[in-house]
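Q&A log
Question type: sequence-to-structure
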Amino acid sequence: MSETPFKCYTVLSEILQKISRGELQDAEVLLDTALVKQDPEAHCKKITEDIKTLIKQLGEGAKFASALLDGKLNYEAPKNFYLFSEYKQLQANLKHLTWQTQQIAKGDYSQNVNFMGKFSHAFNRMIDGLKEAQKTQDQLKELYATRDKFFSIISHDLRSPFNAILGFSDILVEEWDELTDAERKNFLRNIRNTAHNTFDLLERLLEWSRIQTGKMRFVTARLNLGKVVEETFNLHTASAGNKLIGLIMEVAAESYAWADKDAILLVLRNLISNGIKFTRQGGLVTVSAALMNNLVVISVSDTGVGISKENLKKLFRFEEQLKTEGTDKEKGSGLGLVLCKEIIEKSGGRIWAESTEGEGSVFSFTLPLTQPIQDIP
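Response status: OK
Response body:
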């Protein structure tokens, strides 16, 4: 072997050792001084050029790795060098993880981290914990709002009618002899109506609180909807007759649903009562039933005054009860629809309303057609 190649290979070996130790700058200097400046036709020219390229790429890779350690995720990765492909993937993953973390900081807990095994598991557990914390916070807000509304009803809606009853009673006791029979009857009528409305409010508050505390049991069974509607109509014959309102049943004799009978009676009583209340004399209140997949849709429609779009948004909300007077100035507690929503959701269905002002309203709810796999608790 000639001396030139032997010297060349000796220098190359020393250069490779420096590269392996990470002494890239020293390796490049040695390469320039010992080999590159030799005769261009030297035996080691090709391998020298390859090593010089390798040193350059390793230097770029070192800068890239250092940038990653410093958190500079936008630093451009070395191109066309397979040794750093995994580092490029790491950079992409870190960028995505940074974006996910920013979304989580904004309250978006829908992120699912898939990065570095155990790290992903721990991170996703943290997200699940944040979701539960957010859910608990939302529930607490709703609970506080409900509590405040509940006390507001007790302090105002119950207090005011009792003040009216006491006021009318005082007048009757103190001025009985001076009052005419017509005046006495008027005061007694006001006392009776106020007492009925107050009792109605108290009854609904108690029913609502029983649902909230889990004390209202749902004993579900296969119900004949035609018989349930007919039973409810019988309770409203007098009030509908007073306003010359027709009650129409469009429910097939063999229509069935799976629910608690007393709970559904309560829902129908509320919806039919509302239909009568907000329908003028000579109008109609209709109850119908239709099948939709594995559900039964029960609808209570009326030809009444209707509901504005703004007020439609407030329906079924405890914190925003509507207390609109009926067409004959009938009073309401505002809790009926809240109870309906609670009951229907407990029964595995949903409830909604559609209305056009001046034309009437339709309140619909769904019930399971057959017994659910897991019955209502």
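Response note: The first strand starts at residue 220 and ends at 224.
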